[in-house]
Structures are given as C-alpha cells and as structure tokens.
Amino acid sequence: MARHGLALYSVGSNRSAAYLSGVGVARTRVFAYALGGLFCGLAGLALTATSGIGDPNAGQYYTLNSVAAAVLGGVSLVGGVGGLIGPIAAA
Questions:
Q1: What local confidence, expressed as pLDDT, does residue 80 receive?
Q2: Nearest CA to 70 among 80, 60, 83, 57?
Q3: Rounded to whole angstroms, how far apart are CA atoms 67 and 5?
Q4: Mean pLDDT for each 10-residue chunk of the chain (91 residues)?
C-alpha cells in the first residue's frame, strides 16, 4: 500500500514528473477516484446509520467542515502538499 500512496502523492504533485518517474498516471488516477468513491459510499452508510434517515441533503453541512479541517491541517488545495496528522488534529 505504501507504493500506491507514493504514486497518489506524486501524481497529485506533478503528473508529468510522476510519468517520467515510471508511475502509471492513468492507473493511479483511476485508483484515486475508486478510493474516493469507496470512502464516499462508506461515509453515506455511516451518516444513514447514525441519523436513521435517507435524505440526500442530510450531509450538506459537513462539506465546509471537512474542507476547513483539511486547510487548517496544512493541506494545499491545489494538491501534492500535506500530510495525514495535520488534518486529523484539525478535525
């Protein structure tokens, strides 16, 4: 999994440099979208389980909180710069 994480980090930082380093950029981007979709699905299941309602607008107020936690944790919104500990501490 460390290799996939490094590939995600490098593609998020600079696609051209990642490609020249031997990273499969297209495969890594598909993996990133699939991983994001998986986590969104799990988040939807968790929200439904805790709230007990199936309203699609139930989580609309969590978006600003998640972006604020990422920014306060030191993650760049343009990609490639950031870590894991900062956003967890900010959340």
A1: 60
A2: 83
A3: 21
A4: 79 86 90 92 87 77 82 78 80 78
> Cβ neighbours of residue 85 under 8 Å, at least 6 residues apart?
73
- First and final C-alpha spacing in the chain: 24
Tokens representing residue 2 in the block? 């460390």
For 35, the token pair is 């991983």
For the chain, how many residues are written? 91
Q: Write the DSSP symbol of residue 79.
A: S
CB atoms within 10 A of CB 35: 12
pTM to 2 decimal places: 0.63
Q: Are 46 and 59 in contact (CB under 8 A)?
A: no
Q: What is the pLDDT of residue 35?
A: 92
DSSP 4-15: HHHHHHHHHH-H
Q: Which of 65, 70, 66, 63 is nearest to 85 (CA)?
A: 70
